[in-house]
Every structure is written in C-alpha cells, then in structure tokens.
Amino acid sequence: MPTNRPDDEQTSSVTDLLDRPVANRARPRALIVAVAAALAPTLLAPATAQAAGAKKAKKAKASTITVGSDETLTLTETTTATELVIEEGGVITVGDGYSLSLTVNGVETGSELAALTNGYGGVATAIAAGTYTGTIVLNVAEATDVAYSTLTFPFRQAIYVDADGVDEDKSVPSDVMDGTVTDTGASDITLLSNGEAFNGVYVAGGGSYTLTDPTIAFDGNGRCDFVGYGAAVVGTGSGTTLVLDGANISNVGVVRTAVIADATANVIVKNSTIKCADGVVPAEYPAAGTGDTKYMITVPWMLGISGNVRATNLLGASTKASYINSSISSEKWGALSVDGGSYCTLTAINSTIANTGGQGYGSYAIGNVTEHFLGCTFDVGDYALIHWGASAHYGDSTKDAVSDLNDSLSLGLTSAELDDLPVQSTTIDAGRFMVLWYAAGSVAVDGGTRITTGETTFMCKAVAGTVTVDGSDGATVTTGNGVLFQLMDTDRPSSVTVSGKPWSSETTGTYTEPTGSPARSSSWDPTTSQSTDAKGTFTDIALTGDFYNSVWGGGNASLQGQNLTLSFTRTTVEGVISASTAKHSVSTITRTEYREISEVTNTPSAVVNNGVLVALGESSTWTVTGTSYLSALTLASTASITAPTDRTVTLTVDGTAATITPGQSYTGALTLTVS
After folding, report:
1. Which of 385, 389, 490, 497 has the maximal Cβ count within 10 Å?
2. Whole-structure pTM over 0.85, yes or no?
3. Distance CA 441, CA 37 (A)
4. SS3 of 598, please?
C-alpha cells in the first residue's frame, strides 16, 4: 500500500485550488428560495466513460446575466455565462423537482443556507447576491430529496451514483475538475466548494463506486451530519459499497463532515487523509445548543468538550465504515463517530486518529456498535472513546487479525495489500481520559497497546462499564493524575424541553453537587458481585494508580447502589483501591463550566452503597499506598498484599483486626491501613 502524502503537500495543493479566482462576491443574509413552475430540462445519461466535468446536456449561453433587486429569474435548463450579477433582493430559482447550483471556474460557490428558524429547518439554499465573473455555470439538476425525521434535505452533489452508475441528471458535472469519471469509479478528480451544504459524491441505492486519488476541499457550513447534508462523500443504502483510495479531503465548516456511512452501506477508506476544521455557527442557533439531532450542529457541551464539526459519522442499521492506513482528524468534537446507528461496525487499521484543536474524542460509540482499532495511533484532546453502549477493542494489526476483518467486513484488500500492511501496536495519547462510559458496554485492550492519559484513564458514570486489559504482549497503562479507574455518579446535565422553536430541546440543564451523606440502601448488597457492577480485569501487567468507587446510591438518581469489581491475575498494582467521596471544584456545572464535567477529587471513605470487591489472583501483588475501604477481598494462594518500603499494612473486618492470609476471602466493612 502507498503511504499517506505529507500533510504540508496536501495543505498546499488544497489551498492553491481554493485560491483560484471566484469573483467578487458579497455574503449578505441567507435567502429563502422562491419556487416557480418551470419546464423540466432534458438531460442525457452519462456515457460509460467521460472526461470529468463534461456535461452532455445542451446549455443555454449568455455573456452576462443580471438579476435586479426584487426580481426573480426562473431557469429551466443549465445556463452558462461569463458574468453573473445578483442585486440585493434578486432571486434565481428553478421549478419543482429541481435544484440549482452555481459553479465559477469549477468551484461550487454562492449557495447560502436559509435561516434555521424559517419554519423549514433552514435546509434550503439560495444563490447569494453579488457579482461573479469567470466561467459561470448555473446547473439545473433533478432534485435529490433526503428525508430525516420530520425534515427533508434538498441534497445537491457533484456526482450522484446509484445501482446503474453515475446519474448525470442529479449531478453537477461542472464542479468536477480534472481526472476521469465512469459508472464504476472516478480517479484523480478535484471537487471544490466555498458555498454551503453542497455534497461531493453521493453513492446510494446499491451502487458500488471507487474514488481513486480524489481531492476534495469544502469551505462553508453544512447543516446536518445525521444525514450527511453538506458532506464530502456519502455512502448510503443496502448493498452500497463506497471505496476511497488515496483520498485527500480537507473541509472547513459547521458539520461539513468528510465521510458519511449510512443505512447498511459499506464504506472503506484507505491510504487517505481526512481533515475537518470548525466553522462559524449561525447566529440564530441557541447559545447553549440542542440535542435535537435534526438541528444539532455543535457537540453537546455536557460531554465536556466543544466544537462544531466531526470528521466522520456512521449511521443507520448494520452499516460498516473502515479506515485503513489513513489519517483522520477533526479540529475539536470528534474524529470517528457512530451516532444515530444501531449494530454498526467501525474499524480502523494502522491509522492515525487525532484532534488538532486541543479538545475532542477519537471515537464515539452508541447503539450496540462494534469498534475495532488495530495498530492505530490516537492523539486526542480529551477521550479516546466516549462509550454509550458498545464493544470496543484496541490491539495489534497482526496478519491474522487483519485478514479476519478483511473477510468478515468485506474490506476487499488484496493479498498484496495485506502483505504490505505492517504489523503495528496501538498507541493512545489522550489529553484527559481513555474511556468515558455513559452506558453499559465493554472495552478490551491487548497486544502491545500503550495507553497514556493526562488524567483518569477509565471514567465510568454509574453504568456497567467493563474493561479487560491483557498485558501479556506488552500492553501498558499510564495515568496522568494517578487514578486508573473512577466509578462515579453521572454529572451530565440534561436537556430542557422547549416549545415555539424548530428544535425540541436546548441543553440548558445544570448539574448540582449533592450535599450531606448518602443514605444506606436496605436492598443493596455491596459485598457480592451484581450484574450492574462496573468491572475491571487486568492480566500480566504492572499498574501504578488508584481505583475509586464514589457512587452514592441509596435511591439517588433511582440507583440503589453500584459496585466496582476488580480482578488481577499475575499483576502488580500499586495504589489505593477504595470506596470514596468524590467532589467537583464547583458546586454547580452549567455550559460555562463545561470543562468541569468529570473533574473530581476523591477522599477514601467507608463503603455505603458503593461496594469495592477485589480479587487478587495467582501471582498478583497489591502494594497498598494509602487507607483503602473495601467490601470484599479474595486472595489466591500465591497472591500477596504489601506496603511500601519501611511501612506496614493492616486489615480490619467490621472493626476487628484480621490477618492478611493468602488463599483467604474476607467480606464486610474492610479497612486496609498503612502505617
């Protein structure tokens, strides 16, 4: 496989392309398209192969087109000119069932989204007032209406592909520069846009398409990444396969996503570079944001991060997206996302996953998704993974593991490609946390995976999160603040329902720290393992750091209690393992204090409803560095508990001194004290 092109070369080439003259153009207020009846244009189907940008339909020609103030020009066919003047209040429109796109010198431009609050979700675009000069093409294409929830988004795209190949009637060929386009694929093409909500390549309806060495650079806002409105590429629909090989995608704009996989499609990205940077949020968007996915264009601040574009999104049922030997980065928000899907599969092999703006996540997982990360490098602002119910695996890109995924996920890698893919270990460098659990699910770490976090490694918000770390092949875990695992109550503020606005909710909730002491629940047993426990299993690894369970329970948030169950086999652990009381540095958290979410300090304290169950398996040693409160402790015959040099550890059970004996088990109010 070829290696990725250097970033400086990509940046330079994209900048050069976007800098080509597109005329003097004003950017006034967004316009709402006024629709008038018109005759349908007659557009011919594309040939099996054609030069990119060639359009067989007859075009109306003019040297100058002027649309005066308060005038409406209705187009019935694609029209070319050398100058276009639209005075303030002037409108260009097309008939029902058609869309209008303007390109100048091969760059889609001029399109501006209507206001969010216009009653239609702000999904339509109009050509902004201004003066445009150059090679002007006003493209009239058949409409591509894509429904999502209660809205319908009027897609426009450079290339539309279905099961029969390229549908030129739904495409904007004048935006396709360079290269070759056929019914099965396109190579060396360039797609540029500085308008809003324009898509690059849309593959749907069971089509199979390969993009080889495309360059795509979009600068301007999109509107909805839960359907891909404004994305660089979209693969959607049962039976659809979209392959990107050697792609260079660089987008700037609010939810101007690079890659969307949806509705059971299989999207494969290899040897590619994908970069997305934030845009300017529309003024009418609520300051606190909304969790209503029809309108959500910023990351919910309750996740403790900010940003307004994620590089990718995986949607729909049983959809697959795979990234191989590629680089995927977002400025903030997220690089790889599964949001709005169910039973999807996200895979990254020998790829770099990054946030370039100091905040954000590597991947987001919701809806019983399966995520595979083999031989990847994470350099993320906050989280490697935000976990809302998934199965995630971090390991090495061994030949067998990659070959298995190639078969099970239909990646289509040839024998030569498999042979050329080097075996690598995964490296995770997260600015704050490795994993944040908001729902039950598993994380497995093995091979030579190296995890380094700036703060707590595993952060679990009162759910049955489980982590398994196998260090037999060299996996390591290093925490920046001395806490390896934190089980705590959720501190995520909720959304607030609103009326009279297009969106159904706004994220204006507040988290308030509880006061007083937790009430013991008579129905919760902190000494025995429960199906709702958070669990950590560690094998063949040396760990330095603390484990805390600060869940209140006793009916708090309807939670009677929750245990933290830990198992160590052939493992050394040095630190405190204890029930605790956790406190934020502020008593309330609003969107102003969004970075305080998950930020707590612990005071070891006796178990109430927050049991801590520790099993020291064979050849394991726990060096206790401070007072630790447990509810159950089991030692294998070859396990031991020690104190740091020149110190002694003692155990009491329900207030009575007990001898720490290998091969024994203890339950009750356990206190280990170092003196």
Report:
1. 385
2. yes
3. 54
4. coil
